[in-house]
Amino acid sequence: MPLVGDFIQRRGIQRPGFMQESPYVWGGEDINVSRLEVHDSYRGQPFTLQAEPSSPGQPAEYSLWLEDERLGTGQAGQQNQFLQGDVIVNVAELEAAPGAEFTLTKLTRPETIKNLKARLTVAEVGGGGRGSSTGMLRLTLSGENREEIRRSLDAVTQTFLTQNVERQSAQAEQSLAFLEEQAPEIRSELDEAENRLNQYRSESQNVGLDSEAEAAINRYIELESRLSELEFQEAELAERFTPSHPSYQALLRQKRFVQNDLDELDSRVSELPAAQQEIIRRTRDVEVTQAIYVNVLNKMQELQMTKAGTVGNVRIIDDALVGSAAIEPKKPLIVVLATLLGGMLAVGGVLLVGLLRRGVEGPEQLEQIGLPVYASVPLSTTQQQLVRKIKIKGSKKAHEVNTGVLAHHEPADLAIEALRGLRTSLHFAMMEAKNRSIMITGSSPDIGKSFITINLGAVCANAGQKVLVIDADMRKGHIHTAFNGKSENGLSDVLSGRSTWQAQLRTTPIENFSYLARGLAPPTPQSC
Q1: Residue range of the domain that includes 94
Q2: 121 DSSP assignment
Q3: How far apart (Å, rounded) are the C-alpha atoms in residues 92 and 35?
Q4: How far apart are CA 106 and CA 155, in angstroms?
Q5: Confidence of residue 433 (pLDDT cuts 50, 70, 90)
Q6: N or C: which end of the chain has fewer CB within 10 A?
């Protein structure tokens, strides 16, 4: 199931009878979890939800497991709590055979963001030459659930738009918060100033304001209002800049100019009579504080309107649209890449095997280590026509056997010419030999031992020499097939004492050529 499970799910293959009570989920089986809340200590831990048998017409039942511990049971369509409320599960729908298992995991926030980031692609749309930009972005989100893709993309774009609007209105919001904090204090100061003025007037009924005093009061109101406005601006700048910033320094210079004017006005007022000074100061406090308070209220209304009317510089052009065709996996590209990769791996494997298993590739290698090379026999295409594959008893693999003698059917073949050269070389090499026996062997099966033996014997027999070929392969000897004979009555009978070698000799159509077959294959060839 881990290998073909996705195929079964996509094709909707129904659960077969022999896979009942299986933990694997088959095609057509699904779960819809509308809520999964866990304590922070359980985030990232996989819970196993197993479908349980339920009565017909009743809500589906399930059991929840954490590792090997059964936490309890629940029903679809209901909110269920486990681990004393640390785990809350609400399964909206559950369609699965009893025993089917689903894994539920509440991911951590960093892991969720990482997963979303891995699936989300943001690219600029358009943009011609170098350095040009259209400011339009296309967001692409990949996944397996169409509805989840649509909801997630819409949520990303809406969040981006909301943050942009909030960023645009952040300055107005900060200024509004500062004014809302200062307004009650200014109102309290205004009430106190009015009370002091009323009290002084009631005590000194004969004190009035002349034109010079009224002009001073008006000048006070103007300067104090200006100073108050500069202080508000300074509070806003302090949120964004340090005192060394040029804008901040310019504001401080304006405050010093206004303060100097206030100091000059104070010096002129100090020259008036004491009663006039007192009434001017108290009237000034009332008028200035009232002007400041009205200015704060007006400023608050302006900022509220500014905040309410703030529009971001980002606009959502289109809502999320889920395509009908899958964009991943890209099957044609995967096939092409897999083909190229398979070819490279195959070639690399062949080269690696060739490097690790270097054999004898030419006669020069044997001559370099001091071994004599008497002949090099080429591959014969005619010989391939005399070969057929048979299944030898006791072997699982089919072997090639000779069904004829190449030296007899095609005496002019290049391979036979090479064997004639071998015969000549052996003639001179064996002049001082004690006997005229030759043993032909090899390091592995099917490398041409029988071919060399049979055809070398035929070449020597055609030259007038008497030749006896003995098949000593007790396991898979098949020299008899080259002469259309059988393996019975041969070397194994001679070795076991059931017959003599003279009685087991067999003649061939080739003059002076006789052979001794292997005989019946003994049960223990290694004992022969």
Answers
A1: 5-106
A2: E
A3: 8
A4: 20
A5: confident
A6: N
The full DSSP string for 100-132 is -EEEEE---HHHHHHHHHHHEEEEE----STT-
Tracing tokens 């396991």 back to the chain, one arrives at: 475
Give the integer Cα–Cα distance in Å for 21 and 100.
7
Closest CA to 514 of 476, 485, 475: 485
Note the pTM of the prediction, 2 decimals: 0.46
Q: Which residues contact 320 (CB under 8 A, 6 or more apart)?
A: 141, 149, 150, 151, 152, 153, 154, 157
Give me the helix-helix angle, 274-308 and 211-238, nearest 10°: 40
Peptide bond into 110 cis (omega under 30): no
Domain with residue 522: its CATH number is: 3.40.50.300
For residue 376, give the nearest of 365, 386, 390, 362 by alpha carbon. 362
pLDDT tens-place string over residues 323-343: 777 777 788 899 999 999 999
The pLDDT tens digits for 499-509 are 888 888 888 88
Helix (H, G, I), strand (E, B) or coil at 48: strand
Do both 379 and 522 map to the same domain?
yes
The CA R_g of the chain, rounded to the nearest whole Å, is 53
Indicate the length of the chain as a whole number: 528
Same domain, residue pair 294 and 214: yes
- What's the rounded Cα separation, in Å, for the pair 381 and 387? 10
In the chain, the amino acid numbered 490 is G
